[in-house]
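Sequence and structure are no longer studied apart. As an example, we show below a sequence and the tokens encoding its fold:
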Amino acid sequence: MAMLIVLPILLLIIFGYAANFSVSSLDTAVLGPHAQVVADQLPDLFTITEVDESGGAEAAQDLLKDGKDSVAIFTGSTPPTAYVDGSSLFAAQTAVAAFNQLGDRITVDILYNPDLTTAWVLVPPLTGLILMFIGTVVTEIGLVRERERGTLEQLAVMPIRPSAVIVGKITPYFVLASVDMVVVTLLGIFLFDVPFNGNAVLFALGAAIFLFVVLGLGVFISTASQNAGQAIQMAIFVLLPQVLLSGMIFPLDAVPWGVRWISYLLPLTYYTMISVGIMVRGAGIVALWIPFVVLTCMALVVFVGSILRFRRELAPGRRDVANATETP
């Protein structure tokens, strides 16, 4: 019933409100000696976030590197130079089109993705989608099959903590998904010339935290599923919003707030911020600490929830064993 009724409604709402490639507002900082004059002349498309007459070109570029603005205009050159964040593809295309209408009044310099190549902004979050698929679907199906074979009942009679069981179950999937992440990332770099401008250790840390979240989701779903078919159906409800509302396909700025709040509940949204920020823009932990903290909190919540659910699964078997032991 959920697949027949809820899923079509969900698809209608998502595609009706979220399927939007147009960007109606661009966060813009204006720096340099003529910052206020230039800011007053910009079209309404550019939402002014900062006017700093003492700022330089390097400061303008740093604002884009840290992901604070989509456009930063330096007015100390003639004509003024508009730096555009190319890692946000649709926002950059909208900005370039708007500046082209202004003629030669502003020079445009696209940073981090000068040719506005789609693969450069699509491959990094695709690594997260692959991790999501392995971590959620493969893990939950594997655990559900163990339930069908009676493995969980065998664990119930053993003096093993639920947390130890979960760690033991997800470790092989963690190793497998980590290998896949490395392979897919390297293929993206060599096949599509996707740059890797940031810290590899920081990227690996973000991927590991994200993977821990999705593995926990897989365990949690498996405890609520009675068979593999039910697990796959629940996985669809988990994966579909991740693909459509994480910012991987449709820009978050173009999604209305009535739907966008769902995006900020999805782990792939924050992994997209981390992967694109590190690989394409070369951003550091100072600029990405919020998605790192949110993913860490999600990992703790999901892990604790999985332990509690798993403990409920093991409790009946252990009570039966205890009663059988006490029976003379």
The first helix runs from residue 2 to 17. The radius of gyration is 24 Å. Residues 39 and 215 are 47 Å apart (CA to CA). The mean pLDDT is 83.
